[in-house]
Specification:
Blueprint (H helix, E strand, L loop, with lengths): L2 H12 L19 H6 L9 H10 L11 E7 L2 E6 L13 H20 L2 E7 L8 E9 L6 H8 L14 H8 L6 E5 L3 H18 L2 H8 L6 H7 L12 H10 L2 H4 L2 H15 L4 E6 L5 H20 L3 E4 L2 H4 L3 H8 L6 E8 L16 E2 L1
Parallel strand pairs: 1-9
Antiparallel strand pairs: 1-2, 2-4, 3-4, 5-6, 6-8, 7-8
Helix pairs in contact: 1-10, 3-4, 4-5, 4-13, 5-13, 7-12
Length: about 375
């Protein structure tokens, strides 16, 4: 079989190469247990142990392409500054750093929740004046008697599930606790609603447009981990496991695919086909909005996103954030009108019931700390 034919056949087997923004295997690349995850940081004697513990939980926050675009400058035992790591920006799909800023906000919120569970009150102050400033947040820790241990378990368990979900509807008793987190900025659209169908019909088209843009596809390919060794060394990006592949597809992915493969038409077409399956195999979509496009409003929405993702985890629901409608024209200009929303849309989240994915890999704290 010629190479092109082999790749095409392999992609047909893939089934879940993903919309590209965990099924088990003995040789899979998975996030290490939390105890193992923390082990390497014990060598950092100069950093307070309790602060390292909090940052370990913060590092579990979600980010686009799993870039983990944060640095942490430790000022003292009770003060730290969250910085934006320019080397992890996505200038092609996120030229204004909207999504990077939201990811950094989710990281800060994770730190706040972890600190609360450890008996600290974390005060987060935005110090960035633009989405491209290096210094973004200053966090000050103060002792408190309030603790919430459940947050720690939810932070560890939260994951993105990119496989197909059940299509059964979510009843009102389930939806209302989600919307109740922020009734003004959390909106739910069942798959078969007019708005839900608009999202499901147009997301694959936005993904197609993005996938066949060479510059954007090349940027994505840089974060696809086609080597187990690379994935284990870097502990970031999108692995075959994170994309929901079975053992056979993972074998093909790690042995026959590379960045050149990702630039091929067959690979891109398969991403669009997979996205079509994904959006039609779910209960519906959660859409999060912000009051306006100011940094303050984005900060509030980023916190809301992390709170919603943990609430979904607590409710044993699976979810998958799909941002292409917000990254591509004409959909980014149409979405507010099509969904009858007055406020800017910041997140589109596919939700439902299904087998939950294992959490994706994460970098150890010592890799992003500046002392």
């Amino acid at each position: 079989m010629k190479r092109r034919g082999f790749i095409k056949s392999s992609l047909a087997l893939a089934g879940a190469v993903g919309s590209l923004p965990l099924i088990t295997s003995c040789a899979g690349v998975h996030r290490r247990s939390f105890a193992e995850f923390k082990k390497g940081d014990r060598m950092m004697d100069s950093a307070p142990k309790e602060l390292m513990e909090i940052l370990n939980y913060g590092a579990l926050a979600p980010s686009g392409h799993n870039t983990q675009p944060w640095l942490v400058k430790i000022i003292s035992e009770s003060e730290l500054v969250i910085q934006s790591d320019q080397s992890r920006w996505l200038p092609q799909v996120d030229p204004n750093n909207r999504e990077t800023f939201l990811s950094l906000t989710a990281f800060a919120e994770s730190i706040r929740l972890a600190a609360r569970s450890s008996g600290w009150n974390a005060q987060i102050k935005r110090i960035a004046d633009s989405r491209k400033d290096q210094d973004v947040f200053k966090i000050t820790l103060k002792r408190t008697s309030t603790t919430q241990q459940n947050d720690l378990q939810l932070l560890k368990q939260r994951s993105t599930t990119r496989s197909n979900y059940e299509t059964r509807e979510i009843n009102n008793n389930t939806v209302m606790p989600l919307i109740g987190v922020d009734r003004n900025h959390v909106h739910y659209y069942p798959l078969q609603s007019h708005e839900g169908r608009w999202i499901a019909d147009n997301l694959p088209e936005a993904i197609k447009q993005q996938s066949f843009n060479d510059a954007k596809q090349k940027e994505l390919a840089q974060w696809l981990r086609f080597s187990r060794d690379t994935a284990e060394k870097r502990q970031d990006g999108l692995t075959a496991e994170a994309l929901g592949m079975n053992w056979m597809t993972r074998f093909i992915w790690y042995n026959f695919f590379n960045r050149d493969t990702a630039m091929g038409n067959s690979f891109r077409k398969k991403a669009v086909e997979t996205a079509h399956d994904q959006v039609n195999h779910c209960s519906g979509f959660l859409v999060l909005t912000s009051q306006d496009d100011a940094l303050k409003s984005h900060f509030e929405c980023g916190k809301l996103y992390q709170q919603i993702s943990l609430k979904l985890t607590e409710m044993d629901m699976v979810h998958h954030t799909m941002s292409q409608l917000l990254e591509e024209e004409p959909w980014s200009s149409q979405i507010r009108t099509q969904l009858n929303l007055n406020d800017p849309v910041q997140f589109v989240i596919r939700v439902g019931y299904g087998e939950k994915a294992r959490p994706s890999i994460r970098r150890p704290v010592k890799s992003f700390i500046i002392e």
